[in-house]
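INFO  loader      accepted 1 record
INFO  loader      residues=349
INFO  predictor   begin
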Amino acid sequence: MTSPTKAEGSGSSTVALDPELEATSEVDKGAKKLEGRSPGQLMWQRFKRDRTGMICAGVVIFFFVVSLAAPLLTAISGTNPYTLYGQDPTYADKPVLDDFGLPLGYFGGVSADHWFGVEPQYGRDLFAMLVYGMRTSLFMALGVTTLLMITGVAIGLIGGYFGGRTDYWLGRVTDFFLSFPQQLFFIAFMPVVTAFFVDPREETPTYFRALAILIVLWLLGWMGMARLVRSTVLSLREREFVEAAKVSGASPLRIVRKEILPNIVSPILVQFTYILPSTILTIAFLSFAGVGFIEPTPDWGRLFAAGAKYAEQDPAFMFFPGLALVIFILCFNLLGDSVRDAFDPKSGR
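INFO  predictor   done
INFO  writer      dumping tokens
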């Protein structure tokens, strides 16, 4: 092998490398480019190329950050969701309602003190009610969806992998819960749950209402996830890599944890992005129907119930809560589509 030599020419200090060294360097660079990537890395690379998905992910994260920062945001605005600014004598020097109980000013009373306006009749700050209502709805929906996913995945895995009598009886239990008309059962069952544990003469605590909503939505919502996981596991348990694990003496728990579960992460994650916005709408519907959260707990659904009452007098009251809900649900659904496309190697996006 020849040693590096200086290139000929007056005053030149350029070093000419050995051709064999250059070839070795190119091979090393090519090897680095061909390094293996995990399915998660491939999914992330595909997702980053989807501009719609990235924008929607940013919007969804923004909503959760706003919900977490609700106390800070209301401290900055100098408002809170509970003060009756139209009736509290402390704020008599800054009237927000006219003699008919309607907001003063334009577009529902929007001003420097009340960024989104105020509520008719009471004068509560709409911005504070909205950010705290988002906080209630989003984190309630996140808790419910997490329980639904855990229950559905566990039942689907057990039934799909073991089959036989286990799958049969779990299937019948799933069919039993699917037989309930969900929306009607929500309305009928919520008062029963609260009345069973709380004296009707006493006011139901907010934490108990939240717990009751969590239990009802959990009991009547895990079946779709269980059926999806079961059908996926049924197709996976006959695959060669699962059979090889059985032959090698791996226990059922290890096979499920190491071989099957990693292969169903994609449908689980995609389904999560569809279930969570649906759960938010269901919680809002319960509050709108009067069986969810009630006064004075801020909630997205309760804002719509109040807006329906004030629609003729103050239609602007519905604008900001409605716009926020539409943007969030739309972005979360589009995010679900982007996640599905990122996991699907046959997608053309």
